[in-house]
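Task: complex structure prediction.
Instruction: return structure tokens for all chains below.
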Amino acid sequence: MTNAWLSGTIIAFLAGSVGFFVVLRGSAFAAHAIPNGAFAGAAGANLVGVNPLVGLVVFALGAAFGISSLSRRTRSDVATALALVMMLALGAAFLATSSAYEPAVNALLFGEILGVSSNELLPVALLAVVSAVGLAVLYRPLLLSSISSDLAVARGVNVRLIDVSFLIVVALSSALAVPVVGALLTFSLMIGPPAAARIVTSRPPRALALSVGFSMLTLWAAVASSYWTNLPIGFFVGTLSAAVYLAAKVWSRAQSRRLRRALA
Amino acid sequence: MHVLLEPGLFSNDTVRTALVLGALVSIVSGVVGVFTVLRGQSFAGHALTDVATAGGAGASLAALSPLAGFIGGGVIGAGAMDAIGVQRVKDRDVATGVVLGAATGLSALFLYLITLQTTTTGSTQSILFGSVFTVEPSTLPDVLVLTALVLVGLAVIRRPLLMSSISPELAAARGVRLRAVGIVFMVMLAVAVGLSAIVIGSILSTALLIGPPASALRVSTRLSRALLIACAMGVAATWLGIVFAYDSYYWFGSGRGLPVSFFVVVDVLAEFVLVSLVARRRRRLLAPFGRGARPDHVGWI
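Output:
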């Protein structure tokens, strides 16, 4: 369980900070597609017998590059959809040709609180540090290009480079999160808590901190509930992330109603 | 011919059902998909598939009709996305993501409970990824009726839908009720993807909804032509995929083939790449004559 808490905390920290930009940039679809690429990678790694973490990272990066190169030919939501179905189809083909153990496949899709073993903790932590440093380096140009891409271009920011770098950070964080949270639910941690934080405050640094906080609370609650009930962690991550968002929405409605009443 | 068409392909009932249902679903996806791509709602189109799958899993847990589960789930999901807010583009992204996350969480729960109930293996994957070879021929009448409903519905709202997809400002100025048109379209999208998710699985549902229409829109200068090309490409990809998947049982000599979804997706992507190359070549050839520009679709209104 110590492993579960440690890896969970690392994952939630990354998902909360990456997710802040995912919501700001409106790239929820890419955040949904890339973990599915990681899923295909884990299935492929199982087929050829290499370390699953290698498969997760390589295929998540493959999905990120696939999205960004297809985006040059067509609108980005179409590019994301095409990259997504390619990755899922590859995953289905890998599963069909290998004799994957079904519970292992379900764990990969819907998460497993003990998904990171103690000898994987070090590589996971290292990759997390790489992603966090990458995000810190990108912070200012990324924030600028997310808010106004025209303004970023005028300031001499290479918007295309920022786009690709951001997708790489999403890919690395997804590769870490998939074994624990599951390929299908990783993105929900990058959407619900950060979107809730953005509703509560509009100041970027504060929203970023709040996003990390919400994301950690969500994941800790999910790990604990999954541990007690024996139900898949993905169920708790998905529904709790949505619940955090709805709670923030209700709170902000109540706030504005109170404000209106005070002014009236 | 023997290399492409293994013996017994067309005398096989499963294959025949797959070819007919696959074609029907490709046509609905092609038509609905052209509007989905034009409106920039690929994410919603994909998300509704997964939401429909959650509905299907829930229905199978409650011993209800799976088709009702898939369609009902999709329609409820579309309603939830609209309630959270799909008007502004960035809100739409978050609304779709939140609904998709919650629905996938429920899927995780339902599928886990299903695996506790049954002893058959592979149920999770067959619900999630689906296969056109496992469809019951008895669903054909239902699929036909729903297909007809969606196509007729789209034909009825095609003018305001097209206008609001290409230029919302113009449509609003002409008195089109954007929100109402948007909701009606989302419901039809939900029915269409629910249908294709149950027939061919969620991977192919998205592949056929987005791939062929995106290819068709790259080369078509007229709506009717875009619709025709999208349907033809979808049916071609599906049929080729089914043939390859059937053949692949013989490729490895182990009696274990590759999934249909893999082949159909490869076909869809190959079509997209081919069309992109053709479109680029044509633009280059026609550019000196002032023609061959990328179709902008504004002239369609």
